[in-house]
Automatic annotation (TrEMBL):
Molecular function via GO: nucleic acid binding
Domain of life: Eukaryota
Name of this protein: Transposable element Tc3 transposase
Length: 387
C-alpha cells in the first residue's frame, strides 16, 4: 500500500513515534524504581562513519568544539571512511570494532557483517562480564534486526534485549536517548582530526587512542545523564531533548591552586580533599564561559580598564554580555537558542534581565527570567559538574 505524506498522515506518524517513546520511558523508569542501578547495566551500541576528510553527518552526532560546525564542506562522491561500532555502559566501552572484509579493506555494515562482529568480537569480549545482569540495546537499523540477528542476541541476553523486534522495543527516532549519539561520536570526532590524519590507518589509530583515554568517571556522568533525559522526555510528553541551550557560569581560578569545592567537582584519580593554606587575598582570575552541544563560547576574563584581573559585578557582567557574548552569537541562529544563568546577584538586576530578553525573548532560564532557574542546582549545570 502506498503511503501519501499528507499532513494528517505525518501527524499520525509522529503520534506513533511519540507513543513508542513514552512507553519505553515509562518502562525504563519502572525498572529503575525496582533496581536503582538498572541504567548502569545497559550496554548501549551503535555504529558511526568516520570520513578521512573530516566530513560529519550532523543528523546523529553533536560536536563539542570551539569552532562553528556549520561549515560547508565539499566531499567527493565516495569519500574514504571507516565504519566503527562500539558498546558503551557505566562499566566501560567495548570496542572500537572496525568493519573490514576478508582482504582487510574497510567496508560498511550489513546484516552478515554485523552478525559476524557479534559472534567473533562482541560475545568473546563479554567473557569478562556477568552477562546474566547485563542488557543490550541497539537501534532499529535494518542490519541489526534480521531474524537471525535477533535470535543470536537472544541466545546471549535472553529477554534482556532492547531492540526493534526484541522483547523490549526500542523507540524510533530516539538518538537523544543513545549515549553514543548524544556523547561518544561527537566527542571522538572533535578530537581525532586534530592532527589532520592523511590515511585511514592513521585515523583508525586516533580513534582507538581517544576511546581508550575516556575516563570511567566521564562514562558514569554520561549514564547518569541518561536518567535525566528520561525525566525530561516524560515531563515534555515525548519531546526530543533540546540540544541548543546555552548553560553559562563563572569560576574563580586562584594562582595558588585553591579550589572552591562548593561549585566544582575535580575528576581525578587522586583525592582532592587536601588542606591548602592560602593568603588572605590570593591572586585569582574570574572566568566566564557559555557551553552548549555545539561548542563553548569563551573563555572571557573579567578585567578593569587598566587590564587588571577583577571579580564580576552587575556592570561588568552586562558589559561582557554586550561587548563579548552578543557579538559571538552572530555565528548562530539566535531564534532557536535558549540561554541559562544561575541566580547570582550580578546576573539578575532588571537591566541585565531586560538586556538578555532583548536577545533571547522568552527563551531565558534565570532567576527573574521567563523560566525560573532553581537555586542550589550546580549538579545540573555542565560548567559546574564538568567544565
Amino acid at each position: 500500500m502506498n503511503f501519501f505524506y499528507s499532513k494528517d498522515n505525518l501527524v499520525a506518524l509522529h503520534f506513533k513515534y511519540d507513543q513508542a517513546r513514552r512507553r519505553f520511558v515509562e518502562w525504563a523508569q519502572n525498572e529503575i524504581a525496582v533496581v536503582p542501578d538498572f541504567h548502569k547495566r545497559i550496554l548501549f551500541s551503535d555504529e558511526a562513519h568516520f570520513w578521512l576528510n573530516g566530513y560529519v553527518n550532523k543528523q546523529n552526532c553533536r560536536i563539542w568544539s570551539e569552532a562553528n560546525p556549520q561549515v560547508y564542506v565539499e566531499t567527493p562522491l565516495h569519500p574514504e571512511k571507516l565504519t566503527v561500532w562500539c558498546a558503551l555502559w557505566a562499566g566501560g566501552i567495548i570496542g572500537p570494532y572496525f568493519f573490514k572484509n576478508d582482504e582487510c579493506h574497510n567496508v560498511t555494515v550489513n546484516g552478515d557483517r554485523y552478525r559476524a562482529m557479534i559472534t567473533n568480537f562482541f560475545i568473546p569480549e563479554l567473557n569478562s562480564h556477568d552477562v546474566h545482569e547485563l542488557w543490550f540495546q541497539q537501534d532499529g537499523a535494518t542490519c541489526h534486526t534480521a531474524l537471525a540477528t535477533i535470535d543470536l542476541l537472544k541466545d546471549t541476553f535472553g529477554d534482556r534485549l532492547i531492540s526493534r523486534f526484541g522483547p523490549v522495543n526500542w523507540p524510533p527516532r530516539s538518538c537523544d536517548l543513545t549515549p553514543l549519539d548524544y556523547f561518544l561520536w561527537g566527542y571522538v570526532k572533535s578530537l581525532v582530526y586534530a592532527d589532520k590524519p592523511e590515511t585511514l590507518d592513521h585515523l583508525e589509530d586516533n580513534i582507538r587512542r581517544v576511546i581508550a583515554d575516556i575516563r570511567p568517571q566521564m562514562l558514569e556522568k554520561v549514564i547518569e545523564n541518561w536518567t535525566s533525559r528520561l525525566d525530561y522526555i516524560r515531563a515534555s510528553r515525548s519531546s526530543h531533548m533540546p540540544e541548543i541551550i546555552f548553560k553559562i557560569d563563572e569560576a574563580h581560578f586562584w594562582l595558588n591552586g585553591y579550589v572552591n569545592k562548593q561549585n566544582c567537582r575535580i575528576w581525578s584519580e587522586a583525592n582532592p580533599q587536601v588542606c591548602v593554606e592560602k593568603p588572605l587575598h590570593p591572586e585569582k582570575m574570574t572566568v566566564w564561559c557559555a557551553l552548549w552541544a555545539g561548542g563553548i563560547i569563551g573563555p572571557y576574563f573579567f578585567k578593569n580598564d587598566e587590564g587588571h584581573n577583577v571579580t564580576v559585578n552587575g556592570d561588568r557582567y552586562r558589559a561582557m554580555i554586550t561587548n563579548f557574548f552578543i557579538p559571538e552569537l552572530n555565528n548562530h541562529d539566535v531564534q532557536e537558542l535558549w540561554f541559562r544563568q544561575d541566580g547570582a546577584t550580578c546576573h539578575t538586576p532588571r537591566a541585565t534581565i531586560d538586556l538578555l530578553k532583548n536577545t533571547f525573548g522568552d527563551r531565558l532560564i534565570s532567576r527573574f527570567g521567563t523560566v525560573n532557574w532553581p537555586p542550589r542546582s550546580c549538579d545540573i549545570t555542565p560548567l559546574d559538574y564538568s567544565l
